[in-house]
Design goal:
By secondary structure, the chain is an alpha+beta fold. 50% of the residues lie in helices and 18% in strands. Strands 1-2-3 form a 3-stranded antiparallel β-sheet, covered by helices on one side. Helix 1 runs antiparallel to helix 2. The protein is elongated and about 70 Å long.
Length: 136
């Protein structure tokens, strides 16, 4: 059974390695990126006689596109010009794809560690590995 288990281990490691290569090639195709999310915002200026403060039919100014993000522990909001909305939308989409690929690579690294160095010994005991994972 040791040879059979070793064969399964090699197949599983091969699967993980192939998936890692696919994800890494996906990272190469990403363009410019930016963290955050886009939203629409309306504002009220408060000037006398402006349509935004009309008591019967208020019409706020906008919508303005706003990019909100956190970086190095600080939250930031920036307004995006109308002509740049499509470009910034693509940048935010690329960043989300980047984060998704990185999360999947971390998952694969954890799987690879379970197959190898985290379950040492001449005969890999998957049950023991699972029990160790639960008790940690």
């Amino acid at each position: 059974t040791g040879a059979l288990l070793q064969g399964r281990l090699q197949v599983a490691e091969g699967d993980v390695g192939g998936l890692e290569q696919n994800h890494q090639s996906g990272l190469q195709g990403l363009g410019p990126m930016h963290p955050g999310s886009l939203s629409k915002q309306y504002s009220v200026c408060g000037r006398a006689g402006c349509k935004c403060i009309d008591p019967t039919n208020p019409q706020p100014h906008g919508p303005y596109t706003k990019l909100t993000f956190a970086h190095k522990g600080r939250f930031t909001c920036r307004f995006v010009r109308a002509e740049s909305v499509a470009e910034v939308t693509a940048m935010v989409r690329n960043y989300k794809k980047f984060r998704r690929i990185i999360a999947q690579l971390v998952d694969l690294a954890i799987q690879r560690a379970k197959l190898g160095p985290l379950c040492p010994g001449p005969q890999l005991n998957l049950l023991r590995c699972r029990l160790t994972e639960i008790t940690c």
